Amino acid sequence: MPNKLLKKVMGDLSSLPEPELRKLVQDQMDEADLVEGVLDSLPEGHIIFSPQQRTVRINSAAYHLLPSDRRGRLRKGQGIDDLMIDADVRRFIKDVFTGREKPEPQDFAIPAGDGVRTVRISFRTLSLDSGSYTDVIVKDTTEEILKETRLRRSESLASMTTMAAGIAHEIKNPLAAMKIHLQLMRKSLAKGPLDAEGADRYLSVLDEEIDHLNKIAVDFLFAVRPMDIELRLGSISSVVEDLVTFLTPEAEEKGIDVSVDIERFLPRIEMDARYLRQSFLNIVENAFAAMPGGGRMRISVKLDGNYETIRFEDTGTGIDDEHLAKIFEPYFTTKASGTGLGLTVVYKVIKEHRGDIFVSSEPGKGTIFTIKLPIPSTERRALGDKEEDGGDPADCR
């Protein structure tokens, strides 16, 4: 807050006795030292830029977390080009100041001794009487990311344990069927030779169960092995449109009305069209199965900040709360003929695209799957340029 007393004194310094003036100056020095001490005690780095984009305060953590300039260290009064020797950090901060990037936190890998430190840079605005200052906040997220990595590994191990239990359960039924028919075949052979028709009756069952086991193994391998996803800039709208064209005959046959709402202003995203199409197909096929007597399927694609949101809404039987919490778990299914891996694979594909998937449902009314996929910064920048130039946003599609 502005110091009202100091402002008043500044109006007439000559009227203030020297001892009081000295005391006032000392108080201000003490207060400045206190502010500096508080800043230096913070674990996050703070670099405060003036409205002219020159540094006015830099705390100790910022010196520690960011690389020094070539003359030794970060200093007050520097501009961005003089201050930042890391090209990626420098470009990011300059883009924020020029309005080409939204001031959202971003992570950077910074060399630190023999290793690498991850820092997250964020921004906040300080509005003062003298102008609008920018506080660049630098946070060491190395340990946080390591914890997240360990958590993901732990979750992966738990998922593998669940899958192992699931596959053990799945193979028991075909193995039991094979054993029973081998026993029946052995008893028949004990009574005498089997004719071709009798032998074929047993062998056909064995053949079916072998195919069943093979399908279980193939699905399991697909679910657990690393995906050869190749992320390339592409259009989600084209994937959805192709999917709807493919599904239209089946929808008409089942009495399901499919409608599509794709926003006109859509930038490209980094994606693998093959895997996304299969994931969307799995979701829609589940929705069709939940509408045996017909219904409505709504698919929409919208721009949502720095994400594109794909929404699948059906009017099917819905999912109760007990099952809703388990639908992405391996081998969980409510369908008699399902393997329980379809939505597990969908979840995995969306995570490989650095996206998120959410589901909400109400029994008897329907289910909504919502997928959010990030828009790369290059496309966000191109999007902003087109808006500034007055170009047609549809060109980004």
Describe the protein's architecture and organization.
The protein is an alpha+beta fold. The protein has three domains: 42-140, PAS domain (Beta-Lactamase, 2-Layer Sandwich); 146-224, Helix Hairpins (Orthogonal Bundle); 232-396, Histidine kinase-like ATPase, C-terminal domain (Heat Shock Protein 90, 2-Layer Sandwich). The protein is 49% helix and 22% strand. It is built from twelve helices and twelve strands. Strand 9 (295-304) and strand 10 form a beta hairpin. Helix 8 (236-253) packs parallel to helix 9 and helix 9 packs antiparallel against helix 11 (342-352). The radius of gyration is 32 Å and the shape is elongated.
**Known CATH architecture of the largest domain:** 2-Layer Sandwich
- Give the count of helical stretches: 12
How much is the average pLDDT? 80
Q: Biggest sheet, strands in spatial order?
A: 2-1-5-4-3
What's the shape?
A: elongated
Biggest sheet record: 5 strands, antiparallel
**Rg over CA atoms:** 32 Å
> What are the segments in which pLDDT stays under 50 over at least 5 consecutive residues?
none
Please give the CATH class of the largest domain: Alpha Beta
- SSE topology string: HHEEHHHEEEHHEHEEHEEHHEEH
CATH topology of the largest domain: Heat Shock Protein 90
Secondary-structure class: alpha+beta
Total number of distinct structural domains: 3
Name some characteristics of this structure:
397 residues, alpha+beta, Beta-Lactamase, Helix Hairpins, Heat Shock Protein 90, 3 domains, five-stranded antiparallel sheet, five-stranded mixed sheet, 12 helices, 12 strands, 49% helix, 22% strand
